[in-house]
Amino acid sequence: MPSTPRGFAVRARTAEPTPPPLQGAGWLPHGFRLDTHTHADGQLVYAAAGAVATTTAHGTWVAPANRVTWTPPGFDHSHRFYGRTDTRLVTIPAASCGDLVGHPSVFAVSPLLREVLLALTDRPEARPGAFARLRAVVVDELADTPAQSLHLPEPRDDRLRTVTDLLHADPGRAATLTELGRAAGASERTLSRLFHSELGMSFHRWRTTLRIHHALVHLADGRSVTDTAVECGWSNPSSFIEAFTEVVGQTPGRYVAGLRHPEVIHR
């Protein structure tokens, strides 16, 4: 059971899981999982150190310390935490959610948004209405911030699902779409069209995002940048670093430094 020095308690999985609280902060250990649950209000989950993956029927979103995950009211979702994670939960009341996107997303965390998220979860409300004013700043920041690219959508089409299942099982697999199509009973052209029409991205982009998700986990688990690059399918560390930085917004080295020395990230 993780320590929770700033006052939110999260229960381990039971026969009848208790939904986690809607607001608070606490340190969670590497690999900690919150089972599927839902909220009547919207919720932001911010890993001030470490990383969090949020999964819904729409796919999986991963957020290191420069991103925040957003789940609107009514969406079933689960969370998994990578690295020792300084977890911040912030409620957005349902009445204010209309100003934000209506589907789960990941957003970049500006310096102002980071400070507001920390202020909402670091201490009790000092004056009546203070938290409501801070939440209004959060909504303003997110309403003007485009969603980021760490979303990994999942397909409905059986042929496409066969391909994505093979890649989930082995993200470093170097097979071409034509080779994967033989297992799915579909041509490269058909699968390419399905990737764009169902998932909104190319096969290459989807596989790169999948590999980045696994890279985030491998790095949080203590593997080196070189080993992570090879295991996740890159031919050399340089190409991995370039792809990681483009998708995540920071180098693998900076990401690892934040995992190992979270106090550097704070203020």
UniProtKB/TrEMBL annotation:
PROSITE patterns: CU2_MONOOXYGENASE_2 (PS00085), HTH_ARAC_FAMILY_2 (PS01124). It comes from the Bacteria. The keyword Repressor applies. Keywords: DNA-binding, Repressor, Transcription, Transcription regulation. Coiled coil: none annotated. One of its GO terms (molecular function) is sequence-specific DNA binding. Residues 1-27 are annotated as: Disordered. SMART domains: HTH_ARAC (SM00342). Gene3D superfamilies: Homeodomain-like. Residues 161-258 form the HTH araC/xylS-type domain. InterPro entries: Cu2_ascorb_mOase_CS-2 (IPR014783), Homeodomain-like_sf (IPR009057), HTH_AraC (IPR018060), RmlC_Cupin_sf (IPR011051). This is HTH-type transcriptional regulator RipA. It comes from Actinoplanes awajinensis subsp. mycoplanecinus. The lineage of its organism: Bacteria, Bacillati, Actinomycetota, Actinomycetes, Micromonosporales.
